[in-house]
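cron nightly-structures :: item 1 of 1
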Amino acid sequence: MPPVEAAPPVPTLRQRRRAVAVQEILGAAEQHIVEHGPHSLSLRAVARSLGMTVQALYHYFPSRDDLVTALITKAYDDLADAVQAGIDAARDPAVPRLVVAAEAYRRWGIANPERFQLIYGAPLRHYEAPADGPTTQAVRRMGAIFEQVLFSGLTMEQLAAADIPQLSPALRAHVQHLSLNGIGALPPAAVALFLNAWGHMHGLVALEVFGHTAFIGAHQAEVFHVAMRNMFTDLHNRIPPVEAVVATPEPGR
């Protein structure tokens, strides 16, 4: 019989209270960002809104950077959750899953402009995300979702044979040394396609969230939908069918 997995330990009362307090602090910080923008964030203002001292808040977030890191991570996770929920709820097989994911991404950005600005706007002064920390992991999760909807059903040989302008040796070498936990697991040609698609999608959303496409009025959703469908079609037209790709034999065969 397979071994029975031990049940995870039950959090202590102190741990549960701490978890509740952390969520209250994050909620208050998010509300402060909504009301005043991310660049006005301060521990003192958040503590005051909760009726606590800054010294008490330090027990949960020792510095402003720790709070900012938690807020950015949570924003990325909430955005990724919204995108995944949109994909899971999709019922029309005629709409590519990339388009569904992109539209969910857009909806979250429009509904949460200040938090969108926190993660994609001008960097907060004097803040530096921890190297390979929780914000990086959250970004990788987002990237993995879009990688799946963009390249689902395609082989590595197809992706490697994508019709794109030749990459410089320096760029190709850089791409090949990216973390295997991220887009570095893809062939260089696919990385170029991924970044092109991401930039196109995100650029249109950022323009709308920051008010630069207001002149389109109520037609912005339709314009975005058409742009994403065209992008998906153009991108996949660059990838040869599987029968047209000759796999490279493994060494020794």
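cron nightly-structures :: done
Residues 248-253 have pLDDT under 50 and may be disordered.
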